[in-house]
TrEMBL record:
Gene3D superfamilies xref list: Cytochrome P450
Pfam families: p450
Cofactor(s) the protein needs: heme
InterPro entries in UniProt: Cyt_P450, Cyt_P450_sf, Insect_CytP450_Detox
Residue runs in coiled coils: none
Family matches, as PANTHER family: CYTOCHROME P450, CYTOCHROME P450 FAMILY-RELATED
Name used for this protein in its record: Uncharacterized protein
Source organism: Acrobeloides nanus
UniProt keyword annotations, A-Z: Heme, Iron, Metal-binding, Monooxygenase, Oxidoreductase
GO molecular function: heme binding; iron ion binding; monooxygenase activity; oxidoreductase activity, acting on paired donors, with incorporation or reduction of molecular oxygen
Annotated family: Belongs to the cytochrome P450 family.
Length: 172
């Protein structure tokens, strides 16, 4: 199927697809770096490529225009996406990209998109711009002060401190 679609990618094994390749990369890079594996594969095969998990073809892309096409323009054709293979680790397991038709909390991509989309209209983004800009300026000042005192900065706590209501997830 990948060849029919004209997608590049690593040569698959008949039974396991590219799982052996994936496991080898996880062993080399570590499970905590598994979100970056797809970027490494994209460096070799291009922005959009096919990757087999068993007999299931995954189409992966780092192309922003491709992502816009799938997730915005044609989202109704892609509501039943499979979970991202071997990405059930922080931070990916909490990502909106990890939600299929039925998410882990009983709702899926379509429900989340219908709630989130109205928040990001052009008008609302313009209204939020001042607050976002102010928080970024504060973050920059705090980071500059901390870097002058110490060259090692805990970015999670620093970032969260710019907005007391912001929730920060730490790896467990």
């Amino acid at each position: 199927l990948r060849d029919e679609l004209g997608l590049p990618g690593p040569k698959p094994d008949f039974f396991t697809g590219n799982i052996k390749d994936l496991m080898k990369m996880i062993k080399e890079m570590g499970i905590e770096n598994s979100p970056y594996i797809r970027l490494k594969v994209a460096e070799k095969y291009g922005k959009t490529y096919g990757f087999y998990v068993g007999s299931l073809l995954e189409i992966n892309s780092t192309d922003l225009e491709f992502a816009k096409e799938v997730m915005i323009k044609q989202f109704s054709n892609f509501i039943n996406r499979q979970p991202i293979t071997f990405q059930d680790v922080f931070p990916m397991k909490e990502s909106l990209l990890h939600i299929g038709k039925d998410g882990p909390h009983g709702y899926g991509w379509k429900e989340i998109r219908s709630i989130v989309s109205p928040v990001f209209t052009t008008g609302k983004m313009k209204l939020m711009f001042g607050t976002i800009h102010e928080r970024i300026e504060t973050l920059i000042k705090v980071l500059e002060n901390r870097i002058q005192k110490d060259d090692c900065v805990d970015i999670y706590d620093t970032y969260a401190g710019c907005d007391r209501k912001m929730r920060v997830w730490h790896r467990s």
